[in-house]
Amino acid sequence: SYMEEASEVVFVFFDGGGVLFNGIPRPMLQKLALSYGNDGNLEEYQIQQIRERVATANHLPEVRDAWHQLKTNPAYTEQMYWETLISAASLKENVEQCKQLVRESMLVHPDVLRLADAVARSTTESGERRQIGILSNHATDWFGSYLQKGDVLQVFSLPLIVVSQEVRCAKPDFMVFQAVMEKIFAVRPNTKPSEVLFFDDKQANIDAARSFGWRAELFNNENQGADVLQQHLFNHGIML
Prior knowledge:
The protein is α/β, with parallel strands linked by helices and 240 residues long. It is built from twelve helices and five strands.
């Protein structure tokens, strides 16, 4: 077990959507869907069909593909993503409106941010200050907008923030964990993977992180409170 290992957790990394932030664009699309199907004499089932198409637009194959591009290819723009989604789901909104709506839907989870802040103020048994970071499968533009939402940059520091579009690879690819280790080595050379604890809301990413040698725990802010996160931290020797 982890407790028998000599290593202590020095770095704690948090996923973006589902852990530190809400996930997008689903909330925006679900809200937007309610404004559809209100014009004309449509049957109830027709209204439902139209709304369903808008609410689940992010699951359409071409939109999924666009999201994959957006989170791994720096040359792929948010504009391109919305053009694909608007066309695939037959939205009335234009790109600028979608950009604004998705930003209005962004939320930073305050309880998780508070816990992260507490971790950054804590020390290991040997008296070393712990450090925190973010590892997120995200578009650089969207991620930047999240940073402006909450006091994220008052808690996290840029050298330990890794966004998939910037590093051109995404979880669960091992390359992204290696990219994080490079950032860690820059601030603390010779850090062992077992000194890193990672929280993510997707099991595949947890499995990959563990295979890579990190400690990792599943956490989803949609259905779990910060107390669950605090218990995980405690289990890994982090007393807050």
